């Protein structure tokens, strides 16, 4: 497999501009002759489908929810980054670029990250024009707050509901195109395969989740904006429906999967409370602007938090990282929490928790200001835990949140299958080994509104795909395979529920491929996962039929894919013998317990190619070349 990154030549600041000039354009009158499939209606897919419709292409957009408005993006809380420097606190495009490259522990492409920082400023203008109600200062200017890994305030927000407001903006733009007839929307429709003809993506196979009908859709190009795969761990902050099926099926058709083991564990989530919990709840990183993280200095101190005097508290992030303090990046803050809990200083019944305390901020600013900034988050916390965070500190613990890995894409966001583009969290893109807070929304919208609409035109104008239709044998064969798999799942008629398998898989992943990883643990996981997968295909019980709404059947297909992806994640984690960002290999740490990179041997993107049924995947390496930043040991001290 060849990995051609298509990074344009020339100075960093000129690459995108020059590339846009050099790319081929599709004549406006010819755009309606091309059809594009966009799978996903979140911030990535929704923005792309609306923009492509506006440009004049014939677009079909798919989502598995009942409305595009319910994509997981709606859950995003804290904010979206942009290098506007409204605060006059020293921000710039270069600083956002640098923070992102460093935050990702030098495992992302310079050119992509610079473009992201450049485009970030346009996103805010576009969203304001759409009417997104960003928070404003008293004088009317847009307000900003800080997120982890940055010493400037560049995060734009709408209370704790930024994703919801941004998605409503994208959704309105999408609905406008639907009304104009340029976009046809297919809700409650799940993509189950991508069809590749002569090396090019030419369409998809879908299942109507209400009637069970399996159908073919032909197009000149296919875009996947299908989100992340954190739910492979079963417990995560992702929406329950988020899954890897679209990208996994594309992988099996030839799209390389990059850095699958790069997972982000978010430090501020409500701790797990029992065996049968089905999901975890994020408490936005924005809370670390005003909340202070601490644990008791003494092991096993079970006093209520407000009875523990100041001198007996350990504000460990402020102690260890004085320059970034509570706003240390997520991977570092998560490991900090794990470390103090492993020492026996964790709080709450399970001992797997640390405090996030607002008492100082409330004293300094008043409860009203805190309510204005985080009111909905405090309410959510109180409803779930029955504790009032205005009076007692929140209890938080790290949880799986985001996946930096995803399908490999070149600078044009095209995968290793020609014509298959991948955007948003579904691609491996710009965040290296650790994403900074508020950068996912930025990337999804950058891809959907500003990058893809340019690059897909170049693909169509250059490739000029020949006409094909659903009668093509490749479509017929893919449809038959999808139907066969569905029948097979229903026929097993075993004794265990899909969820019980998923929960067990998630536990294996959390224990051996979670916050820290080691050689022996990963090898153990690689033995346990195939055993459990074998039992799944022998003993899972999927009730109902394929001719009706059947959520057990939907889940079974997704969990079957998670099994295979989990194995690839462990293979990737095992091969990457260094620590970087969220990938912490216990064998590779500095004397004070920080992640120790090995640039000599691992400064590359690991892009895995499917090896066929029963054969191991093959590793392809895209070397990462740093011409503008100096590789250094990441320090937030
Ligand atoms: C609780 C939470 C809070 C967050 N807060 C922030 C924040 O404040 N700032 C920030 O920058 N990031 C945040 N993130 C991360 C961010 O929300 C996501 O990375 C981003 O929204 C992903 O957008 P997306 O468009 O790539 O995918 P999604 O929003 O997940 O959309 C995926 C779309 O693909 C569709 N789809 C998937 N598979 C299929 C299939 N097989 N067939 C058909 N359709 C399919 C779905 O229906 C959906 O429409 C947060 C994440 C979580 C979990």
DSSP helix count? 17
- Give the total of beta strands: 19
Outline: globular
Strand order of the largest sheet: 5-2-1-9-17
Q: What portion of the residues fall into strands of 2 or more residues?
A: 5-15%
Radius of gyration: 24 Å
* Heterogens: flavin-adenine dinucleotide
Structural class per helix/strand content?
A: alpha+beta
Low-confidence stretches: none
* Average pLDDT reading: 96
Q: How far from one another are the termini? A: 41 Å
What does this structure look like?
The protein is of the alpha+beta class. Helix 4 crosses helix 5 (110-130) and helix 5 (110-130) crosses helix 12 (440-463). The model has no long low-confidence stretch (mean pLDDT 96). Strand 1, helix 3 and strand 2 (58-62) form a beta-alpha-beta unit. It has helices at residues 15-22, 28-31, 43-55, 93-103, 110-130, 162-180, 245-252, 316-320, 330-342, 359-365, 367-385, 440-463, 473-491, 498-513, 519-539, 551-575, 599-602, and strands at residues 35-39, 58-62, 80-81, 155-156, 183-186, 189-197, 200-208, 214-218, 221-224, 257-258, 263-269, 292-296, 313-314, 354-357, 394-403, 406-407, 420-422, 604-609, 618-623. The radius of gyration is 24 Å and the shape is globular. Helix content is 37%, strand content 14%. The strands form five sheets. It has a five-stranded parallel β-sheet with strand order 5-2-1-9-17. The chain contains 17 helices and 19 strands. Flavin-adenine dinucleotide is lined by residues 39-45, 62-65, 71-73, 75-80, 162-163, 190-191, 225-228, 237-238, 242, 245-246, 282, 284, 401-402, 424-426, 438-441, 444. Flavin-adenine dinucleotide binds at residues 39-45, 62-65, 71-73, 75-80, 162-163, 190-191, 225-228, 237-238, 242, 245-246, 282, 284, 401-402, 424-426, 438-441, 444.
């Amino acid at each position: 497999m060849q990995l051609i990154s298509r990074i344009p030549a020339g100075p960093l600041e000129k690459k995108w501009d020059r590339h846009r000039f050099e790319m081929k354009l599709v004549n406006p009158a010819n755009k309606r002759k091309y059809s594009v499939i966009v799978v996903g209606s979140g911030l990535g897919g929704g923005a792309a489908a609306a923009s492509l419709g506006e440009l004049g292409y014939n677009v079909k957009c798919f989502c598995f929810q009942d409305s595009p408005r319910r994509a997981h993006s709606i859950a995003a809380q804290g904010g979206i980054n942009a290098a506007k420097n409204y605060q006059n606190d020293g921000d710039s495009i270069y600083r956002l670029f640098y923070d992102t490259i460093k935050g990702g522990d030098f495992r992302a492409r310079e050119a992509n990250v610079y473009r992201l920082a450049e485009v970030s400023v346009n996103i805010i203008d576009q969203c304001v024009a759409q009417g997104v109600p960003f928070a404003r200062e008293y004088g009317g200017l847009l307000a900003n707050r800080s997120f982890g890994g940055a010493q400037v305030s560049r995060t734009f927000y709408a209370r704790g509901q930024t994703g919801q407001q941004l998605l409503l903006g994208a959704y309105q733009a999408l609905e406008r195109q639907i009304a104009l007839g340029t976009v046809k929307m297919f809700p409650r429709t799940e993509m189950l395969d991508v069809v590749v003809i002569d090396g090019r993506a030419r369409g998809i196979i879908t299942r109507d989740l209400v009637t069970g009908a399996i159908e073919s859709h032909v197009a000149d190009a296919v875009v996947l904006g299908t989100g992340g795969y954190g739910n492979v761990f079963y417990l995560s902050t992702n929406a329950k429906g988020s899954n890897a099926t679209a990208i996994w099926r594309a992988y099996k058709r030839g799209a390389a999967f990059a850095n699958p083991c790069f997972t982000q564990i978010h430090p501020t989530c409500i701790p797990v409370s029992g065996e049968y919990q089905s999901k975890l709840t994020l408490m936005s990183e924005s809370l670390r602007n005003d909340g202070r993280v601490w644990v008791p200095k003494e092991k096993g101190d079970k006093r209520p938090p407000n009875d523990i005097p100041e001198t007996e508290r350990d504000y460990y992030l402020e102690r260890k990282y004085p320059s970034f303090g509570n706003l240390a990046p997520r991977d570092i803050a998560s490991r900090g929490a794990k470390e103090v809990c492993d020492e026996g200083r964790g709080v709450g019944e399970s001992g797997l928790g640390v405090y996030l305390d607002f008492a100082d901020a409330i004293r300094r600013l008043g409860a009203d200001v805190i309510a204005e900034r985080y009111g909905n988050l405090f309410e959510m916390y109180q409803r779930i835990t029955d504790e009032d965070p205005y009076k007692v500190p929140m209890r938080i613990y790290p949880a799986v949140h985001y996946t930096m890995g995803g399908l490999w894409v070149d600078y044009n966001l095209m995968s290793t299958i020609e014509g298959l583009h991948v955007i948003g969290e579904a691609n491996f893109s710009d965040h290296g080994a650790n994403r900074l807070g508020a950068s996912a929304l930025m990337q999804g919208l950058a891809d959907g509104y500003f990058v893809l609409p340019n690059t897909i035109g170049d693909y169509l104008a250059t490739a000029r795909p020949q006409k094909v239709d659903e009668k093509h044998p490749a479509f017929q064969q893919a449809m038959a395979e999808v139907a066969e798999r569905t029948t097979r799942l229903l026929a097993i008629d075993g004794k265990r529920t899909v969820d019980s398998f998923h929960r067990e898989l998630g536990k294996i992943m959390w224990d051996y491929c979670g916050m820290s990883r080691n050689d022996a643990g990963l090898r153990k996981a690689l033995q346990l996962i195939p055993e459990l997968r074998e039992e799944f295909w022998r003993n899972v019980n999927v009730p109902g039929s394929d001719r009706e709404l059947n959520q057990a059947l939907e889940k079974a297909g997704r969990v079957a894919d998670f099994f295979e992806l989990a194995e690839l994640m462990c293979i990737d984690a095992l091969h990457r013998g260094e620590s970087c960002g969220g990938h912490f290999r216990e064998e590779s740490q500095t004397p004070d317990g920080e992640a120790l990179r090995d640039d000599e041997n691992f400064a590359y993107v690991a892009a895995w190619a499917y090896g066929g049924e029963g054969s191991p995947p093959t590793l392809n390496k895209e070397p990462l070349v740093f011409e503008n930043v100096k590789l250094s040991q990441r320090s937030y001290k």
